[in-house]
């Protein structure tokens, strides 16, 4: 999921914002903190376990039942903002991604089993896909008895349509992995079908083949072992051909999942009701327990907490949509055992880093000096403390396979207050004492507070820092400009699925430097570039993972384009009558397919 | 009268035209390109160009302005459907017709402002009158010092306190929520009661003080004394003569406070999680949503201009000296 | 109020029976932050029906305060009023508000100085005239309106049937004063208090208004208290004259007595300071030197003594130590002997008045 250019990100940021207060004034909390950290590490351990591909048998419905589950009831959901999109083709952001887990279905789907293991399973397809050439060609067979909410059967034509409409000009928000794999990198793929399928043209069989109603064959330009995981993205859920209303589909999509849209009042509320055309026998991922999800927008984070903390009336069966507990309320919640029992926690896939613009800071010793100087512990404290995040030693999140908890080349974990002496020494060696750094930060309370800490540390290390405050709403747009004229700025990035292949290429590929792209440090290292190309072609996931981690080490230690700052964590609270509340690391929110209302 | 209306209408149209042009120009001067907000992870210049085309941002600014303004009178056609006049375009962000969105949110803001208005007018003027009637007594002193204290109770300060007390801690009332009045007057009333009281507190306090001092001033007017000399009772003179005279400065201040009231509605909507025009205005700016910003600005300005006409009419009603022709 | 203060003399009793209006030892004191203001300090006078009493004096001499006391329009919270005011046998001081309300605008009415501010800008002239009529006679709206038109006609407003619906701002100054008079007279009051009713008007209009008042008085036989600082107007209107200074009456007498043989140096001053048509333009007026006395801290003895040119004529400095009394009847409150008063006026003052 994309944490970057969305209101939801802002909501997340805001959720952690007021956090400066959290846990700092709480001196006796050290013991609690430790406990919490252990829990966090366990979470991490669990979350970093490589996911497996479910077999055809495991992909058959119904899903394993949730313990103690009860039927019926309405679940009230509070959200700050309306859902960004409902058209699967436009879904990349985590809020819409969360909804799509009960609304939409794709060829494959992610699932967390009752024992905590994570799998990609065949969803509309019988399995996660067959490939006989190491991942270049993928074949899928549709399950029987799958219909949309109107009861119309889903065929391979609908699958073809789903992928072809991704080429239409109005689809701009969604992921583009598969389009690129099918028809060309960057935005070149659009040339293959400039109008999408809407003017009678289609992708040739050499790209996308549908030999019969049940079979779909993807012919990729290169081997992509992660193809089943990409297919599980919300953006690739099926849009039935006959029901496609193009731009209008975003407000009234047809559901294939257990819930459909009952009533949608844009900007105000969204009610999801049971889709009686959904057949549990076809679905190994989803369940249909509550009668209704009533999602109400326009609730600020603090307000959502108050509703759920008060635990009265409908709020007893209420959850937050995507908002974590506001940092101002964290102390109240953590001190109250009963309330703590109503919370979930887990790692989000996001890593905050301090980008060093390599067009401007060319000397690695200077970059290392900056890296040593930054007091990560302080930055975490400001952004919500141990419930909001955890110091990062490297640039890959705990949610990725092969995560090394002890990886700490710059002593970030050992010295959370920073290593000023080392920084001073490096800066002296580089002969750049007094070097001026243009440091930009967003105009939110957290970033402003963090800016002071960073400025002080760098000044102490011997830099001359000039701070520039920038508008939060357009932060990534401003940082994304190649000629941004800045030296240092914080950005966050998250994986699209549990593979460093969705993190390293977009962030560190030097061939991808352009306005708006996400290589914010402008790292353009020949070895990194060639390694990205090489590892992307490795078809064995375990081997690829190893190689990515080696490249990660090289990037961090030999190039050092960005200071690793911290991983973010999710901390949410639900009403006392919410059952099956569980953190789902795919969505980084509640697992909506497990929620039920206690009577 | 007709001439007056005509003059006012033309004036209002000129003002609206100016506001729209200024808003439009300012929007393009601000940093931030809305295309980046729907650019996905695969963002690049080509993608941005595509989104600019989708949003109609590829045209020159004057052409875009012309299209927008034309749409208000003759409507426009978008991919998501026909947008009938008065068409305020389609929101960049929600891809909804701006007019429909505003029509949907307006009742909330209207209920909020009108309700708050009634509260502070009735309570504020009422206590002000009582204080003036009982000038110098304990009641007067009590009201006066209370209003002095309350006049610094900002919405964002008082709101959470009242919510904490009335809603979260004791559950005396449900959290504020807007129900259409057609759902039942009681539901509508209870849903907005807290916001009304909170948003009108400062106004109530200010108008208590204003009303008290104006009434005391009015009671010393010679024509009020004349009325007493005619044998009219103190109560009669208080209400018929002094109050009437006091309404003139009150209406003047009211005219100036109208936009403040609308501003209060914005803060109130944010404080109590209500979906009205105010919240829409804030969202439109954070989302760099030109059509929505324009729509909210124009509707808000029209609303204020209309209210100003009402204020002028109230003037004419209260004071025959300004009555026209 | 101190016990040392002697009360003014009682006016000469008219032949037989109680006077229509009788004011005895009226004191109106206001408590202010600076101290006690003795706006009226022991005033007595009588007024018969059909007669006009002119009250003259500078601003702050207590003229208006006296008349507001008769109507009972002072706020009892701030004004301390003692003494007696009897109207047609009814005691007004201390009377209940309801009682006073029934009398105001009905048995006693007041014509105020500035009709622009004294009429409400918010209601039509007709309504303002009709209001007290409805209240006091219980007339219907229609009857009251007819009465208002009748009254407007009587005070000389042209086209009263249409003007009745006009607002005061649509009237000229003179018409407004006429409307004011119509309003005061709508219930045929037996006592009319006219507080400088012509000051704001130009001379020709002033004459018309005065004629109107006289005509109306003749028609209804009302008693009039006419307050002014304009001796010319007094000469035209009043039967009796009372000269007030510093919250007290200093001279009392008939019109002729006071105007042609005044006995108080303050009255001489007033007469000398009045311009005359016959006088030489080059001749200087002789204004009274000094300023009106402070009511907070009045001078000892005769309140006029700091401004009086004749204190040396009184032995033992009595002017500064002893307050002169106003004897009953035709009198002046001054320590000069009767001969002195006559001699000084004839020798020193009169020549300048010609």
Automatic annotation (TrEMBL), chain A:
GO terms for cellular component: ATP-binding cassette (ABC) transporter complex; periplasmic space. Residues 27-71 are annotated as: Disordered. It comes from the Bacteria. Residues 29-48 have a biased composition (Basic and acidic residues). Pfam families: SBP_bac_5 (PF00496). Gene3D superfamilies: Dipeptide-binding Protein, Domain 3 (3.10.105.10), Periplasmic binding protein-like II (3.40.190.10). GO terms for molecular function: peptide transmembrane transporter activity. Signal peptide: none annotated. GO terms for biological process: peptide transport. CDD domains: PBP2_clavulanate_OppA2. The lineage of its organism: Bacteria, Bacillati, Actinomycetota, Actinomycetes, Kitasatosporales. Residues 120-513 form the Solute-binding protein family domain. This is Oligopeptide-binding protein OppA.
From TrEMBL, chain B:
Its main location: membrane. PROSITE patterns: ABC_TM1. GO terms for biological process: transmembrane transport. Keywords: Cell membrane, Membrane, Transmembrane, Transmembrane helix, Transport. The chain crosses the membrane at residues 12-30, 110-133, 145-168, 188-208, 294-318. The keyword Phosphoprotein does not apply. It is found in: Cell membrane. Residues 106-315 form the ABC transmembrane type-1 domain. It is a multi-pass membrane protein. GO terms for cellular component: plasma membrane. Belongs to the binding-protein-dependent transport system permease family. PANTHER family: DIPEPTIDE TRANSPORT SYSTEM PERMEASE PROTEIN DPPB-RELATED. This is Glutathione transport system permease protein GsiC. The gene is gsiC_3.
From TrEMBL, chain C:
Keywords: ATP-binding, Cell membrane, Membrane, Nucleotide-binding, Transport. Residues 23-271 form the ABC transporter domain. InterPro entries: AAA+_ATPase (IPR003593), ABC_Ni/Peptide_Import (IPR050388), ABC_transporter-like_ATP-bd (IPR003439), ABC_transporter-like_CS (IPR017871), Oligopep_ABC_C (IPR013563), P-loop_NTPase (IPR027417). GO terms for biological process: peptide transport. Pfam families: ABC_tran, oligo_HPY. It is a peripheral membrane protein. SUPFAM superfamilies: P-loop containing nucleoside triphosphate hydrolases (SSF52540). One of its GO terms (cellular component) is plasma membrane. The keyword DNA damage does not apply. GO terms for molecular function: ATP binding; ATP hydrolysis activity. It is found in: Cell membrane. PROSITE patterns: ABC_TRANSPORTER_1, ABC_TRANSPORTER_2. Belongs to the ABC transporter superfamily. This is Oligopeptide transport ATP-binding protein OppD.
